[in-house]
Specification:
The complex is a heterodimer of chains A (204) and B (185).
Chain A (H helix, E strand, L loop, with lengths): L3 E2 L2 E2 L1 H8 L5 H13 L1 H18 L11 H35 L1 H15 L2 H28 L7 H8 L2 H24 L16
Antiparallel strand pairs in A: 1-2
Helix pairs in contact in A: 1-3, 2-3, 4-8, 5-6
Chain B lengths: L5 H9 L4 H22 L2 H17 L10 H20 L25 H15 L3 H12 L4 H8 L3 H25 L1
Helix pairs in contact in B: 1-2, 2-3, 2-4, 2-6, 3-4, 5-8, 6-8, 7-8
The chains are: A mainly alpha (204), B mainly alpha (185).
Amino acid sequence: MSKLHDHHLEEAMLYQYLDGAMSQLESREIETHIASCSRCLTRTQELQDLFETLEAWPNEPLTKDLAPAVMAAIQSRRDLSMGFKLVIVTQLLALAALIISQWASVIDALEGLMEVSFGAQLKDGVNAVFTILSHAWTNARVGLNNILVWGPNHDGLQIFQRLHLDGWLMIGVAALLWMVGNGLLLRGFPSNSTSHRRPQSGIS
Amino acid sequence: MMEPSDRDLVLRTFSGEVNAFGELVHRYQTAVFNVCYRILAERREAEDLAQEAFIRAFQRLNTFDVSRPFGPWVRRVAANLCLNHIRRYDPPRLPLNDERDVDAQGNEGGPEVTREQNERDESVRSAVLGLPAHYRAVIELRHFQEMSYAEISAELQVPLSDVKSHLFRARKLLAKRLNANVKAS
């Protein structure tokens, strides 16, 4: 239904008509009125000219090529993404080394928890996994001893075993992996970023 | 040799040929810069945001429908980025000056560009860039991105009634300034 203001169309309605924001019925009513009202016809044409003048404004020229900076930023973010994945892997390895070094205590704690919370089957499953880890750990210790070139009867080995230095060695490896991982993380941080730059005051 | 289509370049980017995206940047950097410039009204900021828009477009390329044209999509990404920027920082309106490094009309057209057309373009430029940020935003989305009222409402997260009233006032202000510029010249 047309809203006529002093028998003429309101400007807001003309805008909506020109924006194509009216129903077919409403548009037909507007067109019927415009066809018979010279004032509204003139006003519609003026608004149409305004739209066309605005939309004919040509593009401002770009004074520098954005592509090199864009591609460099993309490449650097891809490198950061790879670095981040490496950090995650090293952190997980560090965590695994830490757990393996203390696995006996972990099993004891989990056994208690399993009995209370999850029942026999899950407890058996977890035990099976940790049994496998236990064998792996024993083999690793033997391998470590061989790498250290200490024979099974060597005095140094006895000291090593008495002081549980193998466990501490694994903790040290875990700590080293953690530090390496965080070093990689810190180096991977971008040194500057344009997306949070505040507008400069004054004339630019 | 025929130039590869935008679709081909996007598909090549998907397959790992990142340099193909560089060609898309070359094709659309002026258009994207102008989206940013019309909203931000500040050249250096517009260049920065235009760069960021392409980076964001690359990161979100997997959401792009290759059956649709790339240009409007990347312009929307740029508009969205600029609108978020002015929402966060609400920069003060800087006095307009002759920021451009080329002559005022970018006279690549040479003698074909008439003085009258130059004056009209300059008049439109100063009228649009002198609007408040939220008016520039609706003008950009309606007249240059050709979005409907509902789309503008969703983009700006304002009620439909606000979109209509902002557009109404922005256009009235533009008409007033353009008429004033015509009289002044």
